[in-house]
# Entry
Amino acid sequence: MIAVVTGSTGFIGSHLVDTLLAQGATVRALYRPETSPARRDARVASYEADLLDDRSLRESAVWRGATHVFHLAGVTKGRTLARLRAGNVFPTANVLAAVAAQSGTPPRIVLVSSQAAGSPAPAADHPIRESDRPIPVEAYGRSKLQAEQAAVRYRDTLPITIVRPSAVYGPRDRDFLAAFRQASGRVAFHAVPRDHLLSIVHVHDLVTALVAAGTAPAALGKTYFVANDEPVSWRQLYALIAEAAGAQPLHLQLPLAGLRLAAGIADLVGAMTGRDLLLNRNKVALARPRWWLCDASLARDELGWSPAVPLQDGIRETYLWYLAQGWLRAPKRSAPGDAEHVSAHLN
# Structure
């Protein structure tokens, strides 16, 4: 396998590179020109191209002889749909056009999308499936769906598979870091209601699914959700993190109305400064639905994939990695009587 990976410096992309190399693949990383040398992986062949410059991509030597392309490059935050389209839709369209312009047998392409490109589930016992009509609830999901639609245009000429991961956690992830900080401290603030359910998957399991999607004959032209068999509530997730940390935090629920107000202020600040802040209206829109649930049975049936990392083990591994990297500090020991005080606030 000669695999081109975009987004190899990111959370999922870096784990994918590790797995491909371990399996004996030749890996080519396609970097943006502004990517610093410190972030480039010395183990892989390095190529440069501007993902927003179709000519730069089309003329790159990275495609020559490639058997697989894993497209992960993108953005997860942005104040406006236009910014998110610039980070997710246009690069995808340009990468696909560049691959299509090459001579010879086209490589297998795996486009990494998101569960947000679909929609929330209508009920706790009715997770969404690939056949359900996608109805994104905010701009990020809409941009990922539009990237998928760009890929659909090439399905008659390129062997494309789309993977929609659920919420992904594991070592090197920053999106769940805030939750780990809250649940391992003395006071845990919940931005999302604690009884809301979400599908989740460890990054190692997701990477296994990505490789399977790029090699299984049945995957051609298909879309797959990837998630653990069982969902988890935010209450359960915080409890597992606290258990891994040996913490007993006081749990406090933040009202969604307050978050909406704070997001509006953050959007205003972002518009004035030109920065994309972590808190924005799109993030609050993602927090509203009670059930972010998807069914990964199609991936199990057609790819022979199944999650292998138990949630409790994955949470502990991630927590210990955060500690080792200095991203988290070990919690201070509770004073006598604190456990009883905290337990009274859990519900």
